[in-house]
Amino acid sequence: MSRTRDGNEHDGLPDPALPPPTVWEERGISRRDFMKFCTAMSAALALPPAFAPKIAHALDQVKRPTLVWLEFQDCAGNTEALLRSSHPTVAELVLDVLSIDYHETIMAAAGHQAEEALAKVTKEQKGKYLVIVEGSIPMKDNGVYCCVGGRTAVDIAREVCGNAFATIAVGSCAAYGGIPAAAPNPTGAVGVKEAVPEATVINLPGCPLNPDNLTALVVHYLTFNKLPAVDSHGRPLFAYGKRIHDACERRPHFDAGQYVEEWGDHGHKKGYCLYKMGCKGPATWHNCPTQRYNMKTSWPVGAGHGCVGCSEPLFWDSMTPFYRRLPNVPGFGIESTADKIGAGLAVATAAAFAGHGVISGMRHDKGKPEDHEEA
Amino acid sequence: MTKITSKYVWEVPVRVTHWVNFLAILVLSVTGIYIGNPKSLALAPSGYVMGWVRFIHFVVAYAFTISVLARFWWMYKGNRYANWRSFVPFINADGRHKMGRMFRYYVFISKEVPYVEGHNALAGATYLLVFGLYLLSIVTGFALYAEYAPDSVMFKLFGLIFIPFSSQGVRLFHHILMWLLIGFAIHHIYSAWLMDVKERGGVMSAIFGGYKPLREKE
Ligand code: HEM
């Protein structure tokens, strides 16, 4: 007999043989759904399934670590990604378990009251709380281009991120400066780690980030009480350890040699590889093909549009033009590709040497070895 | 009268690596052009056109790398014509003088054909640049290749290039290097032919057989 606790199979009276309901059950989540979630999380974290009970145990015990969410030069797209799930998920509730003491978009407090709450956290919970930063931090002209409550973003970040247990930079702006940092970067925008080098920062880039990866990261922290392993760009390996191109559902078409040649053509309708349409999957590390967006519904390449490499540092500069495979050659017009320039170079070289050959053929050299030997 | 003797100039490793490099660059360029701008050749998703093209590119890339490294080793072990000093003529006054003479001949200022046994000084210096292009192709190629396994030793090594440069930038550069090598090849075949005609030093046949004719006045 399995001990179901979802209320469907017994008369509603609490069964004295069962332990008291957990924080999850109080929130209307069945044990079965909860365990499913824990198993999914161990998969997202690239852990063996045997870790699911460990995660479940940790989540049952949570001690509501404090979280503050700072927004700087952002579009609130990451907040949106997190809040706009179509129905409440266990994942959202995991974030509920954190005590979100400050979040500009969703908190009830305003003005000085809100800023006081933030000051209280940094003082009383020094080294223990988590910070999530969304948006880039402008550094130019003493950081005046982004101020909250009269203080510059960099000033706030130094204090709040500098005193935290760890900072999670969500979205490409917070991680690497993102779109505000695109050339010519008028505000001198940078990511959190660059603005506050002394802070412990873990990056979850993407435009927006995938909320599932944030949930998995928080679950990892709650389970193991430490941050997961990261790559050279400070991104957790469980979500950014594999190249999109290598996990893509269209990869067989790439290897086969079947490409979309034009939007809406036969190959596009059949779901061929978007390589020639400028897909940046070969240069981008992210778990989009497996984790997908919006309750695992879809992701850009799945929907027929190439990857734009949004989770890579400075993607707006390095991944453009989005609809061409290779960047433009600096110094040449945007219509010239590396191949046109290269072929031009080859033809010009050949022509130059052909000309040289004609002149050489007509010239009489001095001291030519033993001309007189010729008949 | 002159007596023609022949002199063994290009030893076996020099000739073998030369022709391996020639074939490798040819194959790498053809496969590289396909990788860079593929045509939809497969009729069924079970085809493996790009798979094979990339496989050939990578296998030949290894052969090319080994050949280039072997040639570097021979710069220390080989005879004086193969020696690394032939590629840096500009480090001493005599070499610079010889480069100047060759340059004046090339640009039609002088009519004196400078006859040499090994590489002429200008050619030697050009090959230094070409070895540079080889190395850059290899480093950028292996860096891109290792991207599929970011926790591999190969990526730890070659991936260092991604600290100052973006992956897309490296991709573009790898592509441009091919055109620079094609440009070199055109120039190289032409000047070898030119010098074969003008110098009568037998450079063309020497790269096959190794011997160059030596004329001695009696
Ligand atoms: C003379 C030497 C070489 C030439 C002329 C050459 C040429 C090319 C060209 C033209 C491309 C297409 C680039 C693009 O448009 O994206 C390419 C791609 C590539 N080559 Fe080479 N290559 C050479 C050597 C190597 C070596 C030594 C390696 C080492 C493994 C290598 C690995 C690669 C890889 C991995 C790609 C695919 C890049 C991608 O992911 O887009 N190549 N090569």
What gyration radius of chain B follows from the Cα positions, in whole Å?
A: 21 Å
**What count of domains describes the coordinates of chain B?**
1
CATH architecture of the largest domain in chain A: 3-Layer(aba) Sandwich
Described by the principal axes of the CA atoms, the overall outline of chain A is globular
Percent range of helical residues of chain B: 55-70%
Question: Based on the structure given, which CATH architecture of chain B is correct?
Answer: Up-down Bundle
In angstroms, what is the radius of gyration of chain A?
28 Å
Rough outline of chain B: elongated
Which ions and ligands are bound to the chains? protoporphyrin IX containing FE
Structure classification of chain B: mainly alpha
Q: How are the strands of the largest sheet of chain A arranged?
A: 2-1-3-7-9
Overall residue-averaged pLDDT value of chain A? 85
Total beta strand runs of chain B: 2
> What are the low-pLDDT stretches of chain A, counting only 5+ consecutive residues below 50?
1-12, 371-375
Distance linking N and C termini of chain A: 111 Å
Q: pLDDT below 50 for ≥5 consecutive residues: which ranges of chain B?
A: none
CATH homologous superfamily (4th level) name of the largest domain in chain A: NADH:ubiquinone oxidoreductase-like, 20kDa subunit
Strand content of chain B: 5-15%
Biggest sheet: strand arrangement of chain B: 1-2
Task: Write a compact overview of the structure shown.
The complex is a heterodimer of chains A (375) and B (218). Chain A has 375 residues and is α/β, with parallel strands linked by helices.
What does this structure look like?
The complex is a heterodimer of chains A (375) and B (218). With 375 residues, chain A is α/β, with parallel strands linked by helices. Chain A folds into two domains: 23-241, 3-Layer(aba) Sandwich (Rossmann fold), CATH 3.40.50; 244-354, Cytochrome-c3 hydrogenase, C-terminal domain (Cytochrome-c3 Hydrogenase, Chain A, domain 2), CATH 4.10.480. Chain A contains 17 helices and nine strands. Chain A has helices spanning 23-26, 31-44, 52-60, 77-83, 90-97, 111-124, 153-162, 171-176, 192-195, 211-224, 237-240, 244-247, 251-256, 266-269, 288-291, 315-318, 338-362; strands at residues 66-71, 99-103, 130-134, 137-138, 147-148, 151-152, 166-170, 189-190, 201-204. In chain A, strand 5 (147-148) and strand 6 (151-152) form a beta hairpin. Chain A is globular, with a radius of gyration of 28 Å. Residues 1-12 and 371-375 of chain A have low confidence and may be disordered. The radius of gyration of chain B is 21 Å and the shape is elongated. The longest helix of chain B has 33 residues, at 167-199. Chain B has seven helices and two strands, in the order βαααααααβ. Chain B has helices spanning 12-36, 49-77, 93-106, 121-146, 153-158, 167-199, 203-209; strands at 2-8, 211-217. Chain B is mostly helical and 218 residues long. The model of chain B has no long low-confidence stretch (mean pLDDT 90). Chain B has one domain: Transmembrane di-heme cytochromes, Chain C (Fumarate Reductase Cytochrome B subunit). Helices cover 64% and strands 6% of the residues of chain B. In chain B, strands 1-2 form a two-stranded antiparallel ribbon. Chain B starts with a strand and ends with a strand. Protoporphyrin IX containing FE binds at residues 25, 28-29, 32-33, 35-36, 57-58, 61, 64-65, 137-138, 141-142, 144-145, 171, 174-175, 178, 181 of chain B.
